[in-house]
Amino acid sequence: MIKKIEQSPLYKIVNPKSIAFLGASNSFAAMGTSCFASLAERGYEGELYPVHPSQEIVQGIKAYKNVADLPCTPDLAVMVLPTRIVCKAMEECGKKGIKHAIIVTAGFKEIGGDGVALEKELVGIALKYGIRFIGPNCIGVTNPHHKLNTTFLSDNSEPGFIGLASQSGSFVTQMTNYLSRMSLGFSTAFSIGNGASIDLVDCLQYLGACPHTKVITMYVEGIDRGREFMETARAIVPDKPIVALYVGGSETGKKACFSHTGTMAGPDMLYDGMFRQCGVIRATSLVEMFDFAWTLGNLPEPKGRNVVIQTHSGGPGATAADACGRMGLELPPLSNKTLDKLADLVPGTASINNPVDLTFSKNPKDFFQKIPGALLEDPNIHMLLTYYLMPLQTMQRPLVQMGLSVDEAQKGAYKMVEHACDAVAGLVDKYKKPLVGFTFRGMEEPFPAGLAKRGVPIYPSPERAVAALAVLARYSELKAAITKKP
Amino acid sequence: MIKKIEQSPLYKIVNPKSIAFLGASNSFAAMGTSCFASLAERGYEGELYPVHPSQEIVQGIKAYKNVADLPCTPDLAVMVLPTRIVCKAMEECGKKGIKHAIIVTAGFKEIGGDGVALEKELVGIALKYGIRFIGPNCIGVTNPHHKLNTTFLSDNSEPGFIGLASQSGSFVTQMTNYLSRMSLGFSTAFSIGNGASIDLVDCLQYLGACPHTKVITMYVEGIDRGREFMETARAIVPDKPIVALYVGGSETGKKACFSHTGTMAGPDMLYDGMFRQCGVIRATSLVEMFDFAWTLGNLPEPKGRNVVIQTHSGGPGATAADACGRMGLELPPLSNKTLDKLADLVPGTASINNPVDLTFSKNPKDFFQKIPGALLEDPNIHMLLTYYLMPLQTMQRPLVQMGLSVDEAQKGAYKMVEHACDAVAGLVDKYKKPLVGFTFRGMEEPFPAGLAKRGVPIYPSPERAVAALAVLARYSELKAAITKKP
Questions:
Q1: The pTM of the whole model exceeds 0.90
Q2: Segment (H or E) for A399
Q3: CB B130 within 8 A of CB B99
Q4: Bridge partners of A79?
Q5: Shortest CA distance from A390: residue in chain B
Q6: Nearest CA to A25 among A15, A13, A36?
C-alpha cells in the first residue's frame, strides 16, 4: 500500500502539470483530435505540447515535430497513434525522460497473435526507461477536480466523489451524463484497457488515498493480482467502501470479456468469495453499482437494519415493504411515543403501522418535516424510506383555483418544491440517520432533482431504494468483520 | 368467461354514456371535487350529473339535490362521499335503477371492526338492486380511449395498449407520467380497492375481451377466487400475455397488504405455482412489469432464444452478454455468410464475435441499418440487442467543425436522429424479429424518445433489456404449454 497519494504511479497521470500529446491533428475525423479537443473543452490548465510530424499548429496550439524537440520534459505523454508506431514513440518518450503515459491505441494483447508480442515489446521499453503507463487499448482518464479529460468524448460534468477503476472505457466516458442526472460525478475515473503496466490494484491504491474519493467503484472483467487486490481492499474498506461489478462469471460474460480485453475471467463463486473476504461489495449491474455509491457516499451509517416506510399511497408502500423483507431489512412496529406524536399529524384515514400510510397529506410541512422527524426520533428506527410523488401540476392546480395566475401558481409551486427539498435534506443533518426516497416521476422534475442536488438519494423504484439502504447496513457489517480480524 | 365485452359488468363502468357524480362540490379542497375536475380535464364526452344537497351549480354544471331528481338513469354512479352516507346513497342509486357504481370512499373492510359490517351492508344493498360496483376504498378507473378519468389526479396521457387490474390506486393514477416517458399508455386501468363486488377476475375478463388491450398487467396483493382466476387466465394467455406483480409473498409484504386492502396474502411458492400453471408471467417489480409490457405489446414473437448483441463499446457489450447468460438466452456464433456481409461494413478494430463490437461506427447508415440488417438476416439469430449512445452533442461537434453554424448543426443532428430512428423501426417491420436497445442516456433525449415513439423499446440498462427480451421467449413457451394441454 502507498502511504501518500503522490507515491502512486497514477498521481502524475491524473494530475499532470504538462502533457505531450501524440496523435492529435487538425483533421477532425481522427480520434486523437477529439481527445485533444476534450482537454481544451474541460479547461485543462497545464501546459499542452502536441507532437505532429508535419502540422506546426494543432488546434491553435504550437506543435513539435518530435518528442525530442519539446522545450521541457512533460509529466505525461498521451498516445493516440497507429499501432505500428507506438513502440517507437514510447522509446522516444523514454529518451526524453517522460515517466508516465496513457496509451489509447488498440491492437495489442486483445487481438491475440502478433498483438501479444507487440504488447511484450511495449512493456519492455517502458521497463527500460522506468515508465508507468495506462493501456494500451484504453480510453484514457478523467479527473474533473484537475480539469483533466483525455478521452474522446467531451465531459463538462461536475466533479464528484465516485472513484472508478474500469476495464471498460465506455463506463468512464459514457456514464457522466447518467451520473449528472443524480447530481453525482466522478472524483477520478480510470480506463485501464489491457492493464499492461498499471492495473486495477494500482487504481485501487490511488483511489484509496485520493481525498476527493468517498466511494470506490470498479468494473471488473478479471483480476490478475488476486492477493495484492485483497490486501489493498482490506486496507481501504475500513475507510471507504468499495463496490465492484464483475461480469465474467457467466459463460457468455466470460467469452465477451476475453474478446474485449483478453482477460481470463473466473467463475462467479471464486469472485464472490474473494470479494466477501476483503469486504468488497459486489453489485449485480452498473446501475446497482452507482445506486450503491449514491447512499454510501452521501448518508451516515445506520445503527442497524430497522426501516420505517412513509408513504401516502398503499401500493407503493406495500411494494417497498415486500422489497425490505426480500433484502433482509426489518420493519419494526413504532414505539407508543412515536404513535402519540403521529396522532396529531396524520389524517383519520391513515394507517400508522409500518409502512406509515398517510393516504393523503394534510399539509406539506407535516409531510416533509414533522412526520419524518417523529419517525426518525424513534430510537428503534435506523433508516427512513419515503415514497414521493410531488408533480408540479398537483401543487399548481389548487393555487390556480385559489385565484393565482398560471404564472404565479408555477412560481409558487417551484417555491414549495424548494422548501420541501430543504426540509428533507435538513432531516439527514439533524437526525444523522439514512433517508432515501423513491418515485416514479422523472429525474428531470424539480423535486427529485432538488433532492439529488442536496445529496438525498431518490430512486426510480422501491426495489432500488431498498437495495441501496440495505447496502449501508451491509457495509457497516463488512467493516466490522474486517477490523475485528488480526 | 364472457363472450363479448359488453357482457362484462365493467363495460358500462369504463364506457359510460352518462355519470351521476356524488361528492363533487365547488370547494376545491375536497377530493371529490378533484375527481370531478379530472373528468372535465380528460375531455369526457358523455352526460355529467353532479348530485349535491345545496349547491345548484357544481364546477359550472347543473347539479341535482338527490339521485331521485336526475332527469334520466345514468349508466354509472361515482361516489366520493363520507363513509357514513355511502350505504344510503347506494340505496338511492338502486331505487333510481342505476346498475353500476364506483365507490372511492374508504373506511370499510380495510379498517376492520365496524368497517367489515358496513361493507357487508353495502354489498347487500347492491345485490338487492342488481348493482355491480368497483371499490370501496379505490381510486377509480381510467379509460383514455373513452376520454374517461374518474381519479383525483389529472391525466392527459395518450391512450395505449396496457390493461391494468390493480389492488393499488396509486399504480393507476401515478404511473401515467412514467409510462408516457416510454411512449406507453393504458388501454384501461382499474383500481379495485377492497374488491367487494368486482374483483381481479372480472377485470381480467374485461381486459381479455378489450380490443385496445394488447398486454394485461396486474398488481396483486392476494387473489380470492383462485380457480376462476386460473380458468380465466388460461383462456386469455393464448391470445394475449398477462404479467402480474405479486407483493404479498414476503412477511413484510404480507403485513403491508393486509393493512392496505385487508387482503390475506399467501406464500410466494403458492402464487408462483398458480401463475405458472395458467401461463401468467410473474414480474418481480412494477418497473419490470411495464418493461415486459413494452416488448410483449410491440414486438413479434421470437422463434427461439438466440440473441446477437451489437455494440460499439466493449464494456456495455460484456455486461449485456453476462446478462444474457444469466437469463437463459444464448449468444450463438454468426454464420459464415453473415461474417462475409459484415466484413465490408465494420472497421478493422472491430470484433465480430457475438457480441459484435464495432469499437466505433464508420457511418450511421451502416450502424443503424446495414449491420443490424445483416445480423437479423442470419437464420440462426432470433433477436437483436443493441447498445446505443447517440448524444446530440457528438453529432453536432463534427458538423460545427465542418463549418456549420451551431444552429444549423443542431438541426442537422436532429435530422440524423430522426433518420436513425426510422431506420431502426424499419428493421422490425422488415425482418419480423424482436429488436430492443439499451442506453445510459436519459429518455428525454431525442434518440431514445424517438425509438420509443416508434414502438422500439429502449431500456436504461442491459439487464432490463435482456430480461424484456427473455420474456418474449418465455411467453411463446407458456403459450405452447397451455395450448398443448386438453
A1: yes
A2: helix A392-401
A3: yes
A4: A22, A103
A5: B174
A6: A36
Residue ranges of A 46-105 with Cβ closer than 8 A to chain B: none
Residues contacting A320, CB < 8 A, separation 6+: A309, A311, A355, A385, A387, A438, A462, A465, A466, B256
Amino acid at site A441: R
Cα distance between residue B132 and residue A484, in whole Å: 65
The minimal CB distance from A247 to the residues B106, B166, B319 is found for B319
In order of A33, A47, A339, B312, B338, the CA distances from B363 in angstroms are 18, 35, 64, 12, 19
Residue B407 CA, chain-centre distance (Å), reads: 38
Most A-contacting residue of B353, B440, B459, B461 (CB-CB within 10 A), to test interface: B440
Q: Of B164, B252, B254, which to mutate for an interface test with A (greatest number of A Cβ within 10 Å)?
A: B252
Give the 3-state DSSP-derived string for A148-202, with helices as H, strands as E and coil as C: EECCCCCCCCCCCCEEEEECCCHHHHCCHHHHHCCCCCEEEEEECCCCCCCCHHH
pLDDT in tens, A88-142: 999 999 999 999 999 999 999 988 899 999 999 999 999 999 999 999 999 999 9
- Chain pair A-B, CB pairs under 8 angstroms: 218
CA distance A44 to chain B (A): 19
Residues forming beta bridges with residue B398, ordered by sequence position: none
C-alpha cell at B387: 447498445
Chain A residues near residue B285 by CB distance under 8 angstroms: 319, 323, 461-463
Cell numbers representing residue B89 in the block:
346513497
Cα separation, B276 vs B246, whole angstroms: 13
| pLDDT given at position B153 | 85
The pLDDT tens digits of the residues spanning B420-475 come to 999 999 999 999 999 999 999 999 899 999 999 999 999 999 999 999 999 999 99
| B284–A contact, CB cutoff 8 A | yes
| Chain B residues close to A317, C-beta within 8 Å | 256, 260
Which amino acid, residue A97?
G
One-letter amino acid at B202 equals: D
ipTM entry: 0.92
List, in order, residues 6 or more apart from B484 with CB less than 8 Å away.
none
CA distances from A159 to A216, A236, B302 (A): 15, 22, 44
B7 touches chain A (CB under 8 A): no
Provide, for chain B, the percentages of residues in helix, strand and coil under a 3-state DSSP scheme, each rounded to the nearest 5.
Answer: 45, 15, 40
Please give the grid coordinates belonging to residue A310: 412513509
> Quick check: B253 and A322 CB within 8 A?
yes
Return the residue matching grid coordinates 439499451. B438
**Closest of B472, B3, B424 to residue B208, by C-alpha:** B3
